[in-house]
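RETRY 2/3 - previous attempt timed out on the joint model. Re-submitting the same 558-residue input unchanged.
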Amino acid sequence: MTSADTHRTIDAVWRIESPRIIAGIARIVRDLGLAEELAQDALIAALEQWPAEGIPDNPGAWLTAAAKHRAIDHFRRNKRLEQKHEELRYQLEGRQNVPDYDSALDDEFGDDLLRLVFTACHPVLSSEARVALTLRLLGGLTTAEIARAYLISEATVAQRIVRAKRTLSDNRVPFEVPRGEELASRLSSVLEVIYLIFNEGYTATAGSDWTRPALCEEALRLGRILAELVPNDPEVHGIVALMEIQASRSRARVSASGEPILILDQNRALWDQLLIRRGLAGLERAQKLGGSHGPYTLQAAIAACHARALVPEETEWERIAALYAELAQLMPSPIVDLNRAVAIAMAFGPQAGLALVDQLAAEPALQSYHLLPSVRGDLLTKLGRFDEARGEFERAASLTSNARERELLLERAQHALSLSNPHGRSRIHPDPER
Amino acid sequence: MRFLMMVKAPENSGPPPKELMDAMGKLAEEAMKSGEMIETGGLGPTAAGSRVRLSGGKITVTDGPFTEAKEVFGGYAVFELKSKEEAIERTRRFMELHHKYWPGWEGETEVRPMFSMTQQATAR
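RETRY 2/3 succeeded.
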């Protein structure tokens, strides 16, 4: 094995092992920042020793042991923590009897990991800090990788992580899983972080950089972990189902030349059936747990309506409209309303959709949102009001900041202009959801 | 990146020892809990399978068992991982369990990148 190979293997082992090592050490030293430093020291030792001595038979156990020794050294150096040192020795000696690493993969690991998730997503941190810390500690991403994914400088990421760790330390945030009533609100903070990460990757238009889709994969992985660790919370399964189904369309939603393809125009053969199957199973699980009315589960149910339709004509628009209505009650948002208007137009005709869109026209939050005039333009086209439609498409074009999208909207304005023929092709703009 | 791992071994290897099944169950559980294994399954005997071959413009169907094959596929798993090295590391652990709990067993696991979300199957 060349030294480069060894480094790549160390990289892989680190990604697999680092969350559990950091979490295990954090449980002992009760400080997340310190735990990460100690784990990093162990990684550095591996990078120094393995290329010369070869990769140990059980690299995960090696790294864990190395990090623990560093934890002991740390306490030895710190005399004021003498007592804690004894406590630690006691704990470590108890654990050193574990003869093989396989049997150390018990529930305790799950608990450690859960503590890590809740601490990294603690509400005392800004959402940016939570995202960075989560990607770093749970995703095993380097500062450089996070910076690349978010198109920000490495220094900014590093600073965010340092500050986050300091904030946790200053606020004496305990390294534990919240209980009772606190659990629900803390869990929603975790779900928010996961979905932020997912969306960051999912909404990125095109781009060949692997880090953006990698964010989707990372969010999915975190969601799947959480679904195993907190199996009885419906919204956890709801968010995983939502992400699985949305991710199933990844390959179909951007053309070879990088332009976005709307859901009704996508080649459904490119949808990932494995992810759809997992998503539908997750949704069912969420619903069985009584979560049908949670925000993520509702969104997953909407995504599932599309996923179940083998061809666009089979889409259950009435059901989608009803689900959006429920979602709008739960988290009122003009964007949800706009989606609902589109579903209503598909289910009950363009006139019904237009009535709702017109109500939204005065909504301040949508004043510069290009999809409003774009949807309106589609409905007007469908109703044969081509002149008005053209105006809407032009307005939409002036509002979008995406050059390719502007081009498409102007083409549609042109198309509306040319539609004097009553048999001309007119089509409704599909659901603006992705 | 998505990977397909297919394990191949002589078909007459006999049933795996219980210790191996337990250890593999644990490994699979861990891989599920880490959110990385998204699908897994075992394959029935080749006696129950067939091969459909196109050759020289002719399609021929041959029913199993495939006695001439030294090793046949017995099971598979689909993982979503960040790199090929991770896939190899996961597979190495799977094979180590065989070494530990099934003395004398020999076989091979083929690790292949799949086209998926990122379409980076050829990367690295």
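Confidence is low (pLDDT under 50) at residues 96-107 of chain A. Closing ticket.
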